[in-house]
C-alpha cells in the first residue's frame, strides 16, 4: 500500500515534477577497463578519443584498409590495441570487456553484435541506431577536470553539438583552473579533518568556500591561501579572499581616502 499521512498537506508545486523519457546522466568510470570499438572510420575515431580521455584500455577491431587517419595515428602510437580483421562473435568471450561500441556501415552485423552483447549482459552502443543503444554519447565540453555534456537522447546529435558550443561560450575561460584549485583544497582538508564524522562539516565548509570566493579568486588561490583557509576550519569559519590578502573592503578604502584628503587641495 502507498504511504499516506492524513496530517500532511503537500502542494503539487512543492517538489519537482517527473519528466519521463530522459537518460540517467552519469560520469562512467572506465579507467583501466577494457572496451571494444568495432570500426575504424570517423565515428570510431571520436569514440576512441572519448575512451582514451577516460583512461580506458581500448581494443579496436577493424581491417587496416580504409582506416580513418586519426584511428591510424592511435594505432601507430600504440594508444590502442588493434585487431586487423572484421568482428567475430568470439571477440566477446573475454570476461573483462566492460562495454562495446560499434561504428560500422553494416546494419546486419551491428544488430548481431547488439544481440550478442545483450545475451552476455555487456553494455553496448550501436552508432546512429538509438533503439540498439544501452547508452548514448553526448557532445562534451572539456576544460581540465571540467566536463559538461549535452545530450538530446538520440534525437539530434548535431543539435547537441550546437547547444554545447553555446554553453561553452558563456563559461569563464579559467573555470578548469579554478576547479583544480578547489580539488587541491579538498585533498588538504581531508588530511586536516580525516575522521568520517567530519564528513558533513567538510562538505558544508567546502560549499561555503565555493560560494564565498569568485572564480577569479579561486584561480588566484595559492598554497599560503589554502593553509590560511584551513587554519580556520576548526572554528568553522571561511575567510574571504580579501581578508586573507589583507585587502580592505570598499567602505574602509573610502574612509582612508577621506581622512587623507580633507578637501584643502581642491580634491572635492
TrEMBL record:
Keywords (A to Z) from UniProt: NAD, Oxidoreductase, Porphyrin biosynthesis
GO molecular function: ferrochelatase activity; precorrin-2 dehydrogenase activity
Its EC number(s): 1.3.1.76
Domain spans labelled Siroheme biosynthesis protein Met8 C-terminal: 172-238
Annotated metabolic or biological route of this protein: Porphyrin-containing compound metabolism; siroheme biosynthesis; sirohydrochlorin from precorrin-2: step 1/1
Cell membrane is among the record's keywords: no
Pfam families tied to this protein: NAD_binding_7 (PF13241), Sirohm_synth_C (PF14823), Sirohm_synth_M (PF14824)
GO biological process: siroheme biosynthetic process
Protein name listed in UniProt: precorrin-2 dehydrogenase
Organism taxonomic ancestry: Eukaryota, Fungi, Dikarya, Ascomycota, Pezizomycotina
